[in-house]
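Record minuted for completeness.

…
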Amino acid sequence: MNAPFRIDVEPRAVLADLGDPDMARSIEAFVVAHPDATPFHRPAWLKAVARGTGNDALALVLTRCGVVEAYLPLTQVHSPIFGRVLASSGFAVGGGVLVAPDVDPAPLFVAVEELALRQSTPSVELRGGPLPEAREGWAIKRESHCGFIRPLAESDEAELTAIPRKQRAEVRKSLAGDLTVETGTGPSDRAAHYATYAQSVRNLGTPVFPRALFDAVLDLFGDDADILTIRHDGAPVASVLSVYHNGAVMPYWGGGTWDARRLRANDRMYYELMLHARRRGCTHFDFGRSKTNSGAYDFKRNWGFDPQPLSYGVWTAPGAPKRDADPTSATHSRRIDLWKKLPLPVANLIGPWIARGLG
């Protein structure tokens, strides 16, 4: 009697072909069904980042009998200033391993180290998910950043009263101002957003991302991304590009002009986005992450969001120096101060070249 065919019951770590429609659909289905997934796990995010920044999109999966049981999205980021890194996920505040129940993610940690070495990439960053707590070469960070998320209220007035008193007063003043609200994804929405966002990040001392990145996210996310813009006398003064995932809205790239503070346009923008998201059927508002005890951290707490510590894993190849992309480090702080003084046209010209390596 012939021996039966061997059935492979051990999951295998493989580099996924994101250009294969069947593999992309399998990963997308795994992400959609996973309760811990974020917008940054979606293949659409990886492809948008690749299209918009020129960095390679990669993905590792654990498969058993052809079924995806764990998944690690990756962007290989190249920067002459900050070095090379495999980030999960690139240009995102979330990512990391997604794993099915009772599946050991350890083979993915081994696989990503091996992939980094093959790609001559000395660093790996996992932004969330299960982490390799005891593996050599890994450092786990638990104090550097916090996330902010809370449920949306059941009505416009309830949303307003859910905001703490001091911040609520600012929102009420913004509602009384001569401001208009627009939402959409068309050419005028994109132009208004980029002009506003570029000025905002220059004022903060940060290079602006390529406009192609924003366009790619809007194009590939379809109905799961849009822009909300606040205008005064017809001119955009605050604008935010948001993504939607699993019932939550995340205002991801937002900012305002110098006039936004005086007009309280940012206060109006975030309140209007809460209303807009609820009308779209969202149940939660995800304010993203902020560096612990930073100005943005305090701003989100003022809106009534409780900070939740986030955990990140960082791997450094043997003998390689640790990657320094921390904007609060002494080296980068000096660069930020200089960047704030650049004329806006100059910042917008050279900023995207630098920003595509930030990751």
